[in-house]
Design a protein that fits this description.
By secondary structure, the chain is α/β, with parallel strands linked by helices. The chain has two domains: 165 residues, SPOUT methyltransferase, trefoil knot domain (Alpha/beta knot), CATH 3.40.1280; 70 residues, Orthogonal Bundle (Trp Operon Repressor, Chain A). It has eleven helices and ten strands. The strands form three sheets. It has a five-stranded parallel sheet with strand order 2-1-6-5-8, with helices on both faces. The protein has a three-stranded mixed sheet with strand order 3-4-7. A two-stranded antiparallel sheet has the order 9-10. Helix 4 crosses helix 6. The N and C termini lie far apart (46 Å). The relative contact order is 0.13. The model has no long low-confidence stretch (mean pLDDT 94). The chain binds 6-chloroguanine (6GU).
């Protein structure tokens, strides 16, 4: 998977993307993350990437030309067929809210172009004539699209074969299966009087599976009842939730 990020703040990506699991995947050649400074596509000596908005009002708007030129340059090395399959994602609070289904959809592409918005916003022609997707990561406002781009890079990378190990099987993600994950414990079994539930130490696998299922159901009901509508629930699950 190849990520190409257009940003006014290239420094923001120096640490985060190269650390940990993603850093190792980059070193192993499974992923690449190219950071493109939008300002390097400006033509005046001040590197002006933004301008006043037509119609008046507070806040500067990112100009279209540097962004169109940067995307065009970014895609030019790819064969025409791949260029058409390449999502060009605008990150903005006006976009469709990211969820695991959209992550999976993006993960099927050969790569992604991620455009980080800033200031009051981006010239609308970027959204209507350049971007194929407009994505928000949630109902809150960030100062820019950089953190949102990193969220997408992280979530999409998990679906690139080899990035996460078998132990972190992406098909078994609790969110993919529709329920929140059950509680996890490791040693010691008694930590300053905070003990591990007996059933987990019992060796009774059927009882352990039932306990985990019920804890998942309890947690989902408490924190994300909306997920229960589309979860695959057995009659036993329904009885537990009703009780
Ligand atoms: Cl993609 N950008 C900004 N600026 N704020 C956001 C967002 C994106 N997603 C949620 N809030």
């Amino acid at each position: 998977m190849r990520f190409h990020v257009l940003t006014l703040f290239p420094e923001a990506f120096e640490g985060p993307v190269r650390h940990s699991m993603l850093g190792r995947a980059i070193q192993r050649g499974l992923l690449s993350v190219q950071i493109i400074d939008i300002r390097s596509y400006t033509h005046d000596i001040h590197g002006t990437a933004d301008d006043y908005q037509f119609g008046g009002g507070h806040g500067m708007v990112l100009k279209p030309e540097p962004i169109f030129d940067a995307v065009s340059d970014t895609l030019s090395p790819y064969p025409t067929r791949d260029r058409h399959a390449f999502p060009v994602v605008l990150l903005s609070p006006q976009g469709r809210k990211l969820d695991q289904q959209l992550v999976l959809e993006l993960a099927t592409a050969p790569g992604l172009v991620l455009i980080c918005g800033h200031y009051a916003g981006v010239d609308e022609r970027v959204r209507t004539h350049l971007a194929t997707h407009d994505i928000s990561i949630g109902d809150y406002v960030l100062t820019g699209g950089e953190l949102a781009a990193m969220v997408i890079i992280d979530a999409v990378s998990r679906f690139t074969p080899g990035v996460v190990g078998a132990a972190d099987n992406v098909q078994e993600d609790s969110i993919t299966s529709g329920l929140l994950q059950h509680p996890l414990y490791t040693r010691p079994s008694d930590f300053h009087g905070m003990t591990v539930p007996d059933v987990l130490l019992s060796g009774h696998h059927a009882q352990i599976d039932r306990w985990r299922r019920e804890e998942s159901l309890r947690r989902t009901l408490e924190n994300r009842p909306d997920l229960l509508d589309s979860a695959d629930l057995s009659l036993t699950d329904r009885a537990f939730l009703a009780g």
